[in-house]
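Anyone? Bumping this.
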Amino acid sequence: MEIYHIQNVSFTFPMQEKKALEGINLTIQGGEFITIGGKSGSGKSTLLRQVKPILSPHGKREGTLTYRGRPIEDVDQRTQASDIGFVLQNPDNGIVTDKVWHELAFGLESLGLDQQTIRLRVAEMASFFGIQTWFHKSVTELSGGQKQLLNLASIMAMHPSVLLLDEPTSQLDPIAAADFIETLRKINQELGTTIILTEHRLEEVLPVSDRFIVMDEGRVIVDGTPREAGEALWCMGHPMFTAMPSSMQIYAGVTKDTPFPVTVKEGRQWLDRYLEDKSNVREEVTLNSQTLNNTNQLPALRFKDVWFKYEKNGVNIIKDLSFEVAEGQLYCLVGGNGTGKTTALSLAGGLYHPYRGKVLIGGKNILSMQAKELFTNNIAYLPQNPQHLFVKKTVEQDLYEILSRSSMSKEEKARKITAMAEFLELEPLFAMHPYDLSGGEQQRAALAKVLLLEPRILLLDEPTKGLDSFFKAKLASYLKQLNANGVTILMVSHDIEFCAKYGDVCALFFNGSITTSGAAKPFFAGNHFYTTAANRMVRHVWREGVTVEDVIALCKNTR
Amino acid sequence: MQEHQIDNRNGWRNKRTLISAILILLVIPATIMFGVFALDDRKYYFISLLIILYTMLPFTLVFERRKPQARELIVIAVLTAIAVAGRAAFFMIPQFKPVVAIVIIAGVSFGPEAGFLVGATTGFVSNFFFGQGPWTPWQMFCFGIIGFLAGILFRRGWLKTSKLALCTFGGLATFFIYGGIINIGSLLMFTPVLSRDALIATYASGFWFDMVHAIATVIFLYFLSRPMIEKLDRIKAKYGLIESK
Amino acid sequence: MNSGFATFHPFVNLVYFIAVLLFGMWFMHPDFQAIALVSAIVYAIVLRGRAAVKFQLIYMLPLLLVMALINPAFNHAGVTILFYLKNGNPITLESIQYGLASACMFVTVIIWFSCYNAVMTSDKFIYLFGKIIPALSLIFSMVLRFVPRYQNQLKRISFAQRSIGQDMSQGNLLYRAKNGLTILSIMTTWALENAIETADSMKSRGYGLPGRTSYSLYRFDNRDKGCLIIMFILVAVVLSGQVKGENTMRFFPSIKVAEVTPFSILVYIAYSGLCMLPVIHYILEGIKWRSITSRM
C-alpha cells in the first residue's frame, strides 16, 4: 500500500530566495524502512517535517503530497497525531511530563481514549519496550538511551502506521544507539510500521534499511537499496560516500564489481574471496603510522597517581590514574559511559581536584594555580554542549564577550577575532544568533570562543557528537593545525573511527583508570571488539589495518 | 499586532470580569458572613484562605475554558521552572530570590494572565520542593497578583520596559504587595485575632526580610530585565507565539 | 513513602488531609488540640522517623514561645488580669492561654503539612486535579519535569563558564553575582530555545485535540471505599459534636470549656479515630503481616 506520494515538492522558507527543497519526487510504500542521509543543511529534516504538516515550519510549499491517496492538507489533526509518529533528535526535548508512566499515556490522553484502552496500551508498550522496571520512575532518573526509548514508546502507544525520526541516535552513545536501531528494526519487522529516519551514522542503520535516500542541496540525488545507493554515490564520486559503512568504502577502494557489501560480515566474506588467490597476504606491510616521539621534554599534562571521588563517603570515580600527554599531541580517551573519562577531563581542567595524587600542567601542580593563571593562555575546556558557552545575541558579540575582561586594545581584539574567524570559517555566521546555527556551526563558534583564550592545552568533551562526516573531517583539520602550532589536545570520545583516524595516542578508560594505551593504530589493532569497523572486518588477516585508508592500502599491496 | 491581540483577548477578559464580579459581590460577602455568624468571627485565617482561593478561581476557570495551546503551556511552564530553579539556586541567601523579577518579566512579555499564572504556579510548584504549608496559597496569590499587575500596567502603557520603570515597580510591588499581604497572612496564621498593633508589630519584624526581598527584585530586574525581555521577544518572533491565538 | 496509608487512592489521602487540617485550624478546645497534636506527631514519626520530627519540633520551639507571647502583648481582652505593662495595658491570663492555644494549633498544622508533603506526592496531586484543571495540572507536571533539568543545566553551565575562567565561586561579590546572572541568562536562552521542540513534541502527539482524557495509575477499589466510609462517619460525628457545641471553647472574656458529657466522649473518640486513622492502619497492617509471615 502506498503511504506517501510526493510529487515535485519544493519548499521555501520565508524571506529566503533559495529553495530548501526542490523538485522532490518520492513514493513510499507501507512497511518500508527508509534512511535519509546527506550533509547537515541538505534538507533532510525539512523533508521529514513536510510529511507531518503539524510540524512543518512556516514557508511556502509547492507540488503535491498525498498521504494514503489523500492530499496531506486534508488529513485531519487527529489522524496526523495518531497515524504519523515523530521522534525528535534530542531525547530530553521530546519528553513533556515528569513521570515515565504519564509520558507513555500522553498521546493517548490527547486522543481522548478511555481509561481501559489507555491502561491496555500503556501496559503493552511497557512490555514491548522493556520499560516495566522503570515504569514508575521520574524522567530525570533515566539515561539518554532510556529517554529516547521512552519517546519512541510513547509514540508507538498511539499505533502509528508511519514513524518519522529526525537523527534519533545522534545524542546517544554507541551502545544505546545500536540498541535503539535494533528496536526500530524490531518495530519494522514485527509490527510492519513504516519507518523513515534521517541519520549521520550509517554503519548500524544501513544494514537494516530497505532503502537509502541521499539528499544534497535540497534535492534527492540517490534513491535505492543501500547497496545500489552506495554504488551510485561511488560512481558520482560524491563526497557523501565517505559517510558510508567502512566495508563499502574499502570495497569500492579496491575493486569495482558489484554488489557492494553493507555489513562488516559481508565485507569480511568479500575480503576472504578477494584474498583467496593472492599469495603475499600475510606479509607485513609497513604502514605510515607515526611513532611516538619520545623526547625527554616535560609532558604538557601529567596525571600522577590520581584518585578522585565526588563525596567523602562516595565511591572512587578515578582510581590511581597516571598518564602523560606530550606537547602537541592529540590524546584520545575512549571507553564506555560512566567509566570516569569525563571526570578525568574535568580534573585536567582543574574543575575538580584529586584527593590523592597530582595533576601537573607543564610540571606545575594544578592545585597551586589560580583560576586566572589556569585559564589564560594555559587551559581551555570545550564542554560537550557548545550552547553552554553562548551569552550574546550574535556570534560576533559572543566572541568579543570572551575578551571583555582582557586588557587588550580594541584593535588588537578585533584583529584576534578576525584571525580566529578566518581560521574556523566563521565570518559568514557573525551576524547570526548562536542558537540559529547548526550543530556543527555551534561547535565551531564555541571552539573559536575557547581558542581566543589562546590555550596551550585544549580539553574536548565528545567534540564529534551529532556532527556529520564533513564537519568531523573539518574539525580534525582544525585540531591538526592546532597540534602543529604546539597546542596539546586531550579529548574524550565515543567516536572510535575519529580517534583511530586522527588521534596520536588513544587510551581505553575503564573502571576509573586507563586499562591500555598506545599510539592510535597499534592501540586499536590490539583490541578485539572495541575497535573500528574497518579493523573488525579485516583483523583476521591484518590486525594493523585500522582505518579505511589503511585497509585499502593493504589490499592494493597484495598480489 | 499588539492591538489585534488585545481585541482577541477581550472575550475572555470579559468572562473573567463577570466571574470576578459574581465572586466579589456574592461569594466573598457570603463567606465573610459565614465567618462572622457560623464560625463566631474567630477564624480569620480560614476565611482569608477561602477569599484568597476565590481570587485565583477566575484565572483558573478562564484559562481552562479557553483550551490553551501547547506553546502557551510551554511558555508558562518554562518561565515558572526558571523561577523555581532560581528560587532553589539562591537557597543559601534568605529572601534574596529572583522569583518576583521573573514573574514581572513574564507579565510584561506575555500579558497579565500569563503573569498571574507564572506567579501562582511558581508559588505552588516550588513548594513541592520546599514543602507545602499554610503559606502556599498566600505565596501563590502574592506572586500571581504582582505578575497580573505588571501585565495590566504594561498593557495600559503605565509601565515601560526601561530598567528604571521596571526596577521601581518591582521594588515597590515586592515590598508593599508581597510583603504587605504575606505579613497579614503570617499574622493570621498564628494569631487568629487581628489587631492594629499586632499588624504593625508584624510589619516591623518583617521589615528587613521584605527589604532584602525588594532589593533582590530590583537587582535581578536591573540585570535580567533587558536580556530576558529580548530573549522572550526573540522566541515570540521566531516561533510565531503571538500570531495564532 | 510507598506504604501504609499512602497506598490508598489519592482521593482518600486528600480527604483525610483536608479533614484533619480544617479541624486542626478550627477547634480550639484543649482536648481536641491535644488529640490533633499527638496524632500529627505520631503520624509524622511513622512517616519520617523520630529524628526528623524531633529536629522539626526543636526548630519550632522558639517560634512557639514567641507566638505565645505575641498574643498577650497585643490582645488585652479577658477578665483575669495578671499585671500591667509599662504603657498601662493589662496582661491577662486568658490572652496568655489563648496565645498558647493558637501556637499549639500552628504547630499542629505545620506537622500535619509535613505528613501531607510525605504522602501527597506531586503525581497524586496532578492526577487528582488532572480532570478538573487539565491544562494547569499539565503545566505543573511540565514544571516538575523542567526544574530538575534546569538545575542540572545550571550546574553544567556554571561548569562550562568556570572552564573558560569565568568563575562564580571566586572573586568579589559583585563579580560573582555578575557571573551568577550570566549563568541564569544562558540558562534562560537554552530553556526557551529547547522548549520549542517540546511544544513540537506535544503537538506531534495531538495535544490540543478536543476531548482530552486523563489517565490514572490509581484504581478506586473496595479498600478505598471502605476507608472513605469510615472517614465520613467519623467526620459526621465530629461535626455533630461541633453543632452541639461540644468542641468549642470560649476564651474571652473568661475561659469556658464545654463540659464533658457521654456524647462529648464519643466525639473525642471519633476525632481521635479520624486523626489516628493512618497510624491505626499502619499498626493493623503490621500485626496482620506478622501473623501471615509466622504462618509461612
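Late reply, but here is one note on the structure posted above: Chain C has two domains: 4-125+221-295, 134-203.
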